[in-house]
Amino acid sequence: MKDLTIILDNRPGALAEMGDALGRAGVSIEGGGAWLFNCEGVAHLLFEDGAGARRALESASIRVLKERDVLIQRLNQAEPGQLGKISRKIAEAGVNIEVLYSDHDHRLILVVDDIAKGRAVSEAWTHEQGSGPKSHEKCFAAGTQPLKQHTHLVRVDWTGNNGEGTKTYKGYRRDHIITCEGKPQIQGSSDPSFRGDPSRYNPEELLVAGLSSCHMLWYLHLCSVNHVTVVEYCDAASGVLEENANGSGEFVRVLLRPTVKISDGDDQGKALALHDEAHRLCFIANSVRFPVDIVPEIKKDAGAPGE
User: Fold this and answer.
1) Do 186 and 132 fall within a single domain?
2) What is the CATH number of the domain that holds 40?
3) What is the extent of the structural domain holding 157?
4) Is the terminal CB of the chain with fewer CB neighbours within 10 Å at N or C?
């Protein structure tokens, strides 16, 4: 997300012209506000595609002073004093809050003078507020609204009955079919170590694939809005699962090794740093309890078209 500082004429219709310019470009405002200061219109608006918003505004001769990253936090509305507490922590880190507003999802948006230090405080706050199951239970018990939810419907059908069902351990196949409405089937089984079909995907592979693809999709998005052009992306991901004495098991680590090729003139350091941001945002990585390590490699595309 990007905060844009926008200067508007102090006259009727200036705000409408800004809205029209963004609408024509298909750019949505995610939050923010506008006011008069020293007889001049000033707006701080939040965009998912900051670069696209800036192009749309400047093409309409609307001045954009700054485009900056933001801190995003969700405060517990049932607990008074949350804003004061997080603001105090940010101040103690020597970070100045320059702009404050909320987005359409009722999250706190902060523009600060040191985004790296501010992000460290924000992440520590998130960990502190969200640690342990009681914090989540308290939020809902207090009557606050849950976060935006997405429901994913998956059907799994076992197809490994050889005629006697699961009468014996060796008498059935682990084969199954995974389906989602309107999508091709996935042929599944268990790992070959557990009498599975090696030609089919097993749950462990699908978990590693989910982590890899979620990270990649976030990374590509972040590159697109931060002026980094990715021309190739390949990840040789791996996961380590350990079995326990009682027959159970758990993943202890997943390692993502993405190799990314970017346009020759792009910022290699920025491309590398965006992997950290992608990991922080990844839905799947945020949902597992084992470490997910990222070891990226950035290459320059020396043979881009037209060279």
Assistant:
1) no
2) 3.30.70.260
3) 150-201
4) C
157 part of a folded domain: yes
Q: Helix crossing, 50-59 with 14-24: angle to 10°?
A: 120
pLDDT at 148: 66
Q: Residue 143: is its pLDDT beyond 60?
A: no
Lowest mean pLDDT among 10-14, 166-170, 260-264: 166-170
Asked if residue 86 and residue 112 are part of one domain, the reply reads yes
**Among 52, 69, 86, which residue terminates a domain?**
69
In this structure, are 293 and 271 located in the same domain? Answer: yes
